[in-house]
Amino acid sequence: MTPVLEVADLKTHFFTRAGVVKAVDGVSFKVARGEVMGLVGESGSGKSITGFSILGLIDPPGRVVSGSIKLMGEELVGLGEKAWRDIRGRRIAMIFQDPMMTLNPVLRVDTQMIETLKAHIDISSEAARERCREALVQVGIASPDQRLESYPHQFSGGMRQRVAIAIALLHKPAVIIADEPTTALDVTIQAQILAEVQKLAANTGTALVWITHDLAIVSGLADRVAVMYAGRIVEEGPTQDVLARACHPYTRGLLESLPSRNPRGRPLAQIPGMTPNLLRLPPGCPFAPRCPAVQADCRREPPPETHPLAGRRLRCFHPALDEVAA
């Protein structure tokens, strides 16, 4: 399928007094129409910075230093602020972790949604209100006319996040970047929102990049998953293939630390050590100091990207291919 979003060798660095932080260091992936891609990793792996880079939201001292971001074939890297204002919200939208980053607490919901529409298209207030009403119904909000006249503080956390998703859908964008939008919600509301989002992606054809640290969410939501570590994608492939037959030691470590993967009464497996300081990355593989399969070559140089299995990408000198084949 032709990709809606194509990211190639993206590098986003932060130039600080202490040195250069390579927050995103050569990330590449593609997302097709109607596809959900999960971007997974520990805190500090570069997931959110990747999302902000795609939307042109990197502030100094950070900047995209190289690479390509194409939206339906159009290059976004290097665009001016005026061009970005036309793209953000209309062609690429973002759902933030905290819905109150999206919603203004002193304005009614209808005011905020109508302003979002009028910022990009010439539309009457009546037509805009009707589209807002349809968007609320689309994300499963009952009594939409009453809810449009409410303020954000009158909603529960789950309802506020649904409103934020509805705002993201107003312009029927080609791509939505979702930055851990269900982290602060209880599991029941989380499950409802995930089901709604998956249905919306399928029905509207919107490509969705879902940023999370939760592999359980990815397993039921994403078509493909990309696992990030220290600013790089270390493993990518179809979700069920990666979760059932992980090849990279880091991916295997994340899976083995899940309670569902461990027998009752046995302590949870852990990945030893801490994520590396991006100011002082080791000369070889960034995961080498924590890796149970580390060898001498892992400490000499970063592993190149390989394609050892159909539809899979890896950055590892010694992946668990024999175990996967068995």
Mind explaining what this structure looks like?
- This protein has 326 residues and is α/β, with parallel strands linked by helices.
- The protein has 11 helices and 11 strands.
- It has helices at 47-54, 81-87, 109-118, 125-138, 144-148, 157-169, 187-204, 215-221, 239-244, 249-256, 321-325; strands at residues 3-16, 19-32, 36-40, 62-71, 74-75, 92-95, 175-179, 207-212, 224-229, 232-238, 313-314.
- The strands form 2 sheets. The chain has a 7-stranded mixed sheet with strand order 6-7-8-3-9-10-11, sandwiched between helices.
- α3 packs across α4 (125-138), α4 (125-138) crosses α6 (157-169) and α6 (157-169) runs parallel beside α7 (187-204).
- It is globular.
- This is ABC transporter ATP-binding protein.
- Keywords: ATP-binding, Cell membrane, Membrane, Nucleotide-binding, Transport.
Feature tags:
326 residues; alpha/beta; Rossmann fold; 2 domains; seven-stranded mixed β-sheet; four-stranded antiparallel β-sheet; 11 strands; 31% helix
- Average pLDDT: 90
CATH class value of the largest domain: Alpha Beta
Rounded to an integer in angstroms, the radius of gyration calculated over CA atoms is 21 Å
Based on DSSP secondary structure assignment, what is the total number of beta strands? 11
CATH superfamily of the largest domain: P-loop containing nucleotide triphosphate hydrolases
Main sheet attributes: strand count, strand direction, barrel closure: 7 strands, mixed
How far the N terminus sits from the C terminus, by CA atoms, comes to 31 Å
Helix coverage percent? 25-40%
- Tally of domains: 2
Strand and helix order: EEEHEEHEHHHHEHEHEEHHEH
Question: Structural class given helices, strands, pairing?
Answer: alpha/beta
